[in-house]
Amino acid sequence: MADAISKATMLRFPAYLRYLKTEAGRGNKYISSAVIAEAMGLSAVAVRKDLAGISSQPGKPGSGFEVSELIADIERRLGFRSRTNAAVVGAGRLGRAMLAYDGFEAYGIHVVAAFDVSPVVIGAADGKPIYPMERIFEVVRREDIRVGILTVSRENAQAATDDMIKAGIGAILSFVPAYVHVPDGVLIRYEDLAASLAGVCGGLLLSE
Amino acid sequence: MADAISKATMLRFPAYLRYLKTEAGRGNKYISSAVIAEAMGLSAVAVRKDLAGISSQPGKPGSGFEVSELIADIERRLGFRSRTNAAVVGAGRLGRAMLAYDGFEAYGIHVVAAFDVSPVVIGAADGKPIYPMERIFEVVRREDIRVGILTVSRENAQAATDDMIKAGIGAILSFVPAYVHVPDGVLIRYEDLAASLAGVCGGLLLSE
DNA sequence: TCGCTTTTGATATTTTTTTATCGATTATTA
DNA sequence: TAATAATCGATAAAAAAATATCAAAAGCGA
pTM of the full predicted structure? Predict the structure, then answer.
């Protein structure tokens, strides 16, 4: 690849994308790094440096960057142009909330189904099917599901993860407050809601 | 203060805490940096450096760190020993899931109430009251609520945030996919579920 | 057209974070 | 008790990221 983009920058791209889409929705055609920085709490220099890595069209002095170009560039870089199917594993309250959440679509992610061991929640929610856990192997293959959202209980986390991987899922976003073991080649990221909130509380004491 | 602890380390502490509590639950009294590193996907050196900043007792060569000491140290540093009250604003699906989520207790955070503009959800869920939005001013004061969890729709985000701040909330964790403006002194952190998931998808292509 | 303002992009600098190395200390075992 | 293995803490080096500076290009108004 041309110029390696830093990991930190990569992590910021989804946030840029969200902001830029908001601006596009307001009808703004051009936007300057200073405006983006102000809105997102970054420095203008940082924004320019981040954008320099992916913008196909350079920003124009005097007016700034073309919003639609930037959106296209970021989406292309992040691979959002291609559809990715996802599934929720664990159809509890949080899992069903994820199943209903419509924000994923903007990133080209389609949550197409959920799975749960407990028979009481089998059925459908928001027009999306909830399957019994044992059907995960068949459904993942049929629906070409690549990503899993793990929202089971702590006790079931490892077993559910094993099944997901065995079914062919290669990337997992886990909301379970426990570490699970995954083989090499499987990507797992932990989203610890409690820790995030705790971080906010703790942040009250810090400067940032 | 003695030695400034890096921001990156601070962000890792909640994860350490979670892991250490798991180990404590298994009855392990001592743990080595190598074991922690292996479980959490870090290097042993990094773990030792992080822990050096907060451990009141130094780790003992040959056996490692005392788990209960570490937990106490981290909790003390993060201020989890004192109770913090929180409230959910926006009692939709995600909001009610947050209201019911019991993982916050482990960090000394107590979600005591929710607020919503829509009358249909006013009432109570999981033994916790859901108030109409206009009562936020009174309830926040009475219950000494310090932190807010924002789960309203994009359209209502700014108005809800303004009310939260006016009511006296100084720290917000927002799940709304839009940036809102807050005055200086108010801490807001965005938790973008879609972006997180997108990051996992994108991460499939990267090396990490 | 001309000067002024805005805004970029490149380079350089500083800060932060990660990683490596190594002697010293403690447990373990024979 | 003595040798061996495990583990730490401190220091140093390397890598990554954030921040500052500034000349040049593009718009804007007179």
Answer: 0.84
